[in-house]
Specification:
single chain, mainly alpha, about 0% strand
Length: about 130
């Protein structure tokens, strides 16, 4: 008997819904990469949406294998914690690197360095 034949209908429906929702979220995030105009917009939406999509996949996996193996399967929680901790930190570091790059190349519309007046040029050295 295949594992899918062992899963009751009450568990197969939520697993299927979570997989469909997760897939739609990931497709939406991928379309955001194509449609959004600049780096800052491209990094924000897909990072959030793809994290939610991965969460749906992990919850579906946890539910499916818990029901099919008749025991709690929670190792997906470790993956979820890793995704939830690393995705925002990675997004923040990429955004900071992009802002730093844009400041150095003097692109218009980039916010000034914190603690710096609007018209000053940041040289990298501190005034003491």
């Amino acid at each position: 008997m295949s594992p899918m034949e062992q899963v009751p209908l009450w568990a197969a429906i939520p697993v299927s819904l979570l997989l469909i929702i997760g897939g739609l979220l990931c497709v939406t995030g991928a379309l955001g990469l194509l449609r959004l105009s600049n780096f800052y917009q491209r990094i924000h939406g897909p990072a959030l949406i793809n994290t939610l999509g991965a969460g749906c996949f992990l919850i579906a996996s946890m539910l499916f294998f818990t029901v099919s193996q008749s025991r709690p399967v929670i190792h997906e929680l470790l993956i979820t914690v890793a995704v939830l901790l690393t995705a925002p930190a990675t997004t923040m570091m990429l955004a900071r690197a992009a802002v730093s790059r844009d400041r150095r190349s003097h692109r218009p519309g980039v916010p000034p360095h914190p603690g710096q007046a609007e018209g000053e040029v940041h040289t990298g050295s501190r005034k003491e």
